Amino acid sequence: MELFHFLLIIHIISGCICLVTGAISSMATKRRGIHTLIGEIYHGAFVAIFITSVAMGIMHWSQSAYLLFIGIFSYSIALYGYLSKKLRWNNWLGKHIGGMLGSYIAIITAVLVVNGPNIPLIKQLPTLLLWFLPTIIGTPIIILIGKRYKRAKKLS
Hints:
There is one protein chain. By secondary structure, the chain is mainly α. It has helices spanning 3-27, 34-59, 61-86, 92-115, 127-155. Helix 1 runs antiparallel to helix 2 (34-59) and helix 1 crosses helix 4. The longest helix has 29 residues, at 127-155. The chain is globular.
């Protein structure tokens, strides 16, 4: 098997892991236990996505250079959210929520852009909309969740 195809398989498996663990972690109770365990798996899978996207982007530069840039950008969002919690930065909770959900939006965007042309209802949407729809939907959700946690913090 060619190295590029091996990396692509790892990339796809890691992306699937992120889709599942991101959804579970976002719905789990926010305390040590399931949320943190699943969050660590999510982060590990995202590291694999980052490494494979950079490697594949370099290997097939003319066709896949965008992977390198998207990989760097999307992982930087995930790393920001991950480190804000680990290092307890000022306003770490808002940064954690924004970073982790922002990185999840990146995963959903990648899945839609790559697989959208093969999904009956979605393939009728303009390609550019597939690139922006997760952000259009996800950003207000991040803002609402952030406000909810900010209110809860003031009350406690």
